[in-house]
Structure prediction request, 203 residues.
Amino acid sequence: MVFGQPSTKNYASITNATSSSVSEFTMCLFVRMKDTNFSSGQCLYSYATTGAPFGNAFYVCLFSPGIRISIHASGDDDTDARVKINDTMWHHICVTWKNTKGDWQFYLDGQLQSSGTGLKKNHQIPAGGTVVIGQDQDKVGGGFDIEDSFGPGEVTEVNLWSRVLSGDETAAQKANCDIAQAGLVLSWGQFKGKVTGVKIVEP
Prediction:
């Protein structure tokens, strides 16, 4: 999925992305940035529901100086993953979260880079929301701001699971694109037919 210069007209989206509420998840994707000099946010992945403040129930965005994970409920809860992408190479990103203790993990290129606890403990992410690649949703399926738009760059192999993947499973994705099937909720193939303003390039 090839994104040009930042624009609110470039994205991929899936409505009714989850059929049940989410108490744990793993989201993974590959990303390559063509320009690492940006002063605003660049959102890779957002999931929005009608009950979430500012639209997003969950997002992963690139900010300076690091990558930020956010899970919204009654308030704004951002976590800095303390990891930065500062080159134009392909990178594999995985984020995991489980509500029992609010545990989260951030993997870059198959290696655990940071983790924490207490992120929205006992929270349930509501079902039926919309996933958007390349934009921050301030309302469900819209409310885009060019200051949060991704580009220029490429995104591929976006997948979502309803469970926390192991370190070995995330490493296998990076090494050989081995996509675990157990608990897979959204797969890359579903996004490829739901694009606006971006190009799909097949190998």
Remarks:
- The two ends are 11 Å apart (CA to CA).
- The longest strand covers residues 24-33.
- DSSP finds two helices and 14 strands in the chain.
- The first helix runs from residue 167 to 176.
